[in-house]
Amino acid sequence: MKTLKHNGLFIVFFVLFLLSLAGQALADVALFNEQQTAAGLEHVSIWQYVTTSSFAVDVAENWQSEFLQFLLLIVAAVWFVQKGSPESKKVGREGLETDQDQRVGEHANPDSPSWARAGGWRTRLYSNSLAIVMGAIFLLSWFAQSVAGFSAFAQEQLANLQDPGTWGEYVLSPEFWGRTLQNWQSEFLAVASMVILAVFLRQRGSPESKPVGAAHTETDVEG
Questions:
Q1: N or C: fewer beta carbons within 10 Å in the chain?
Q2: DSSP label of 173
């Protein structure tokens, strides 16, 4: 029970992720089988469907846009501020901050991560580890989207007796960028909305919100 309590936020969202992914698979295979029926073809099982390029491209497409959203927010928040937003540092603290502020090297606490105390390349690497990992996941998801998307596109082209071209041509095509930018614009709007709405609106008890009674101009405070 202690583990569940201490990791409840992660567990809740991971379970919601699994349920959503399963729901997506069930809905998509039902739609796919409707199309199979209309075409006079055999139905496929859900296990067969989740291994198709059609399912893979939809999943990877969503993943890469979500990880890009958080990657850009993490990095942009280093250098840009929004006065009054709990998603932002205080005005005047833009940049990487001092070693004392970040508690690294000789300024580290006894319970600080070992690489924060180590100094040198290890501390530099650890200082950017969150953005590096988020960026790596984004790039891998984007690559997976391009491969799965090309596979699905090629199957459709071949079914219509048309040349599918190459993977490189597909990555530069309107088909690929239309799908990609469709997701990106929604993610950027969601972040921009969260940053600015949290200046004026509140959610009591949430660390993503300022205290209910905090002034609109207060920045870098949590509820």
A1: N
A2: S
Q: Fill in the DSSP letter of residue 105.
A: G
Looking from the CA of 29 toward its CB, the CA atoms found within 13 Å total: 16
pLDDT of residue 29: 92
Non-local (6+) Cβ contacts of 88 within 8 A are 77, 80, 81, 82, 195, 219, 220
Query: Long-range pairs for 172-178 at CB < 8 Å and ≥24 separation?
Result: 175/149, 176/146, 176/149, 176/150
pLDDT at residue 42, as a whole number:
87
The pTM of this model reads 0.84
> Which residues lie below 8 Å from residue 158, measured CB to CB, with a gap of 6+?
164
Token pair for 116: 């924060």
pLDDT at 179: 84
Rg (CA), the chain: 23
Give how far the C-alpha of residue 135 lies from the chain's centroid of Cα atoms, to the nearest Å.
10
Helices (H), the chain: 2-6, 8-38, 46-49, 53-79, 99-102, 114-118, 120-127, 129-159, 167-171, 174-200
Distance between CA atoms of residues 99 and 119, nearest Å: 10
Q: What is the pLDDT of residue 207?
A: 84
pLDDT score, position 163? 82
User: Which segments of the chain have a pLDDT < 50?
Assistant: none
Report which of 75, 87, 74, 80 is spatially closest to residue 199, judged by C-alpha positions.
87
